[in-house]
Amino acid sequence: MASSLDTLSPRAALTEIARDFHARGWMAGTAGNLSARADAEHFWITASGLPKGRLDDGDFVLARIADGDIVERARGGQAPSAETAIHAAVYALFPDAGACLHGHSVAACVATARLAAKATALRLPPLEMLKGLGVWDAKPKADLAVFANHSDVARIAREVRGRFARRRPAVDALLVRDHGPTVWGAGPQEAYNRFEVLDFLLSYLAAR
Questions:
Q1: Which of 192, 8, 180 is nearest to 102 (CA)?
Q2: Could you say which of 79, 96, 150, 165 would form a disulfide bridge with 155 (CB–CB 3.0 to 4.6 Å)?
Q3: Which CATH architecture is the domain 5-207 placed in?
Q4: Is-contact 89 9, C-beta < 8 A?
């Protein structure tokens, strides 16, 4: 990978992240989706149905933050990722978010499988790695927001908007049950670092 993903163009950075995530098993098959702001009103997001280990700069569509509508396709016939609405919600809610990454992992699925059916948050372990998510308390108590895995992804996006509009989450991430985490940051590098840290914490929980 480049010394810093933030030195690359948004699509080049996302392409590198996709290859890395695929190699780690976080984007098996065609699963997962990655995005980065293009400007104040738009973001690039991976097109649907593509193997994430083999992306190039043409495998992205440009979406509008206000409504998630696609305004540009690098190649004809490209469909937007199913989770475009969730990415649009994150960018609309958090103007400081410059990149948003969604992947899948066994650890994430195990963590939610162990939660009570009606739980809306997962208490993250009070490990040193929490600092990588911006939690610096001596005795941290950080909760990760958990959402139900509806087949209607737009419904998940509405629930994300509703909950986070009332209060910003303790960490810049969320977890969809039996699905996977979504993490955001000021740019691709921070979002990548945070995703990696969150996977460490979820893997710790899964191993207990």
A1: 180
A2: 150
A3: 3-Layer(aba) Sandwich (3.40)
A4: no
Work out whether the CA dihedral 171, 168, 85, 145 comes out positive or negative: positive
**H or E stretch at 190:** helix 188-207
The pLDDT of residue 2: 58
What average pLDDT score do residues 119-138 get? 96
Give the model's pLDDT for residue 145.
98
DSSP secondary structure of 107-174: HHHHHHHTS-TT--EEEPP--GGGGGGT---SS---EEEEE---SSHHHHHHHHHHHHHHS--SSSEE
d(CA 104, CA 119): 20
Q: Are strands 180-185 and 99-102 parallel, antiparallel or unpaired?
A: antiparallel
Q: What is the mean pLDDT of residues 26-44?
A: 96
Query: Token pair of 86, please?
Result: 């969730």
CA distance 136 to 138: 6
* The predicted structure's pLDDT at residue 75: 84
